[in-house]
Amino acid sequence: MPHSHKSQNSLRSFCCPLRPNIPSSLVLILVFILLVIGLVTGCGSSAPSSTVRPITLVATATSAEPRTVLPESMVDELTSMAKRSKRKGGATVRAITAASGEASAIDLTPLRPNGQVQHATADAERQIRAAIDKLGVTLGETASTTPGLSVLPLLDRAAQIPDAEIHVLSSGISTEAPMDYRVIGWNTNPASVIDSIARQGQIPNLAGRHVTFHGLGVAGGSQPSLPPFARTIIERIWVGICERAEAASCTIGHDAPTAAAPVATMPVPVVPVPEVITENGCAVWLNLSDAVLHFAGGSAALPASADDALRPIVEATSRCLVQAIDITGHIADTGDGDDHNDLAGRRARAVADRLLALGLPPALLGTVSGHGAHEPVVPNFTGGIFDEDKATANRRVEVIFHQSGR
Prior knowledge:
By secondary structure, the protein is of the alpha/beta class. The chain contains 12 helices and 13 strands. The protein has 2 domains: 55-253; 276-403, CATH 3.30.1330.60. Helix 3 (72-84) packs across helix 4. The longest helix is centred in the N-terminal third of the chain and has 23 residues, at 24-46. The chain crosses the membrane at residues 21-40. This is OmpA family protein. Keywords: Membrane, Transmembrane, Transmembrane helix.
């Protein structure tokens, strides 16, 4: 029996509900709104994070280093951090200068008198400059109160402050176990030093941290300056420790070195710089002392007795595949700032000329220069009194060997 018209409509309503009668123009408007919302949401989810990470400064500030200063690269970074801070305490810098005790902290966020973030550009910039200057003064007045120079305990303390980037302001010339350079020496394999520290459980946990080192190998005060190769060893060891500690990045900031006298007076053992530093049996740096060259006082005339010390240099240039040698003269600080007509440079030239006469190929002679009275290897005035022993150590000619493949 055929269904009635009424029953057919009821069946269609049950199986397939009637479509609402929506105008097509309204549908288009709804689609457009949904597209806009999707675009805005999509852009918002992919926007880069503007989170400001706090910074922890580690400063050894000993009597064997120049006075601690804020490197220019750090001033720029701190300024940027302060400008991006959106809340009080959002641009906090902590300074660690001792293995125990509280870390000092300063917030660089520019604030209004009511405690809200300062948005007036000129006022904000003025406040930021003042805060960074204050931080610089505080660091400059910092002085270690413990004997010796030890970076590892301070770095370990910095690692315990969560989510902060770490900047290490130190020469890195440690005098305490397990990194006593008096024991490690300069003719060493950095990898073996790092392995030894790891076996002793002294590697800090720097996982996920960004670490930057400033001033590595730059000595001052009681510590004689290091030759370039020794500074490179310092850098390689500290970067290796940082990488072994699983830091996210390990960077060396090559800022302009400071020559400011240290504030600290607590003694630090002197790490001796040997007369020669070798690598794989070949010299990479050589100190020709006044006792070896026998220059007369104030003279650049090189006596024939120096030849016995210079001949091995010529021999080494062929045996060790040397590409070039640089020669640098040094003199003592006499207190009057007199360079004695470039005496240091003239002595370096005298050594270079004698090496050429002894058979050094002219093509291997690199830079020949002198460092005057204002650039002593080690300060030879102690408490304003001339120190003859240190002055003698300053009267020298240094030779750097540039080898193939380095």
